[in-house]
Design brief:
By secondary structure, this protein is an alpha/beta fold. Helices cover about 40% and strands about 25% of the residues. The protein has 8 helices and 14 strands. Helix 6 crosses helix 8. The chain is globular, with a radius of gyration of 19 Å. About 25% of the residues are buried.
Amino acid sequence: MSFKILVLEDNLLLLETLEDFLSEQDCKVFLAKNINEALELCYKNRFDIYLLDVKLPDGNGFEFLNQLRQCDDNTPAIFITSLEDKGSIKEGFLTGGDDYIKKPFDLDELWLRIKAVLLRSKGLKNTILEIDSVYSIDVQRKILLENSKELVLNLKDFELLWLLVQERGKVVTLQMIEDRLWHANENPNHGSIRVYVNNLKKIFGKDSITNIRGIGYRFEYL
């Protein structure tokens, strides 16, 4: 499926690289080197997703997206930036960003993130979601498949996996996990969460899920 993408980036080499790569994925790409150009494009077009640099000659991407959000523009957005401090990451999400990728980044990873964000924003189009060439998730039946063969997972293992895959590469907080795995009248159990995480690691490998101590987990499997 072809997506319409706005790329806001003042590095001309990166801008051209993204245009070439995304065009190869059958996307229609619109380029802006500053906020004024981006605003003009947004006024004339409706996009599927924004890719936004943060440090720009006439402002920053956070301010730009915040301005759009105040105008009820809910187009998904991914920040692409060299900023990596927690304050900047937090600001990016608080202004309405859907994902955050740090420079330098792998183009294939960026494409995976774009597809994941669009999948969440547009709703599931297929009941089968491929994790890679080996594993896939049957969302409707709530099962994990390995080369089309069903693997044994309990329901909470599956719900945790589905949450981690939806947020792949991002930190899934303990609160998010509790909200997904337990009903309002149930008592969440952090010990049980560790068990579910270890169950998934037995399938995808010990390095597939990173424990962010005291905060949550991040699915690293690509």
